[in-house]
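Need HIG1 domain-containing protein's 3D structure for a figure. Predict it.
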Amino acid sequence: MAEDMAAKSETMDANVELEWIELREKMHNDNLKHDYNFMTKMVSKVKENPLVPIGMIGTTFCLTYGLICMRRGDSRKQQLMMRGRIAAQGFTIMALISGIMYSLVDRVRQS
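Structure prediction for HIG1 domain-containing protein:
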């Protein structure tokens, strides 16, 4: 009788262990479906809101060229580039806000 109980206990332990193995494999496969590295995540974010990278590039260009003009002593162009930088930053902020609003409206429509 004690041997039967021990055999049942071992069988139950083996079944529980197999369930854990299956669960781990399932979780691992689910994680592989959503495995994002830096590049894939960046590409998906650019596809979601393509205006933000354009604003970032504009901001970077105006800042860099403005600093170059300041180093050369061309204060008129430097001031123009700094104003352009502010405009590009404003464009980027508006692109972010519009992208967030669009995704919120899209989620509400889907649910």
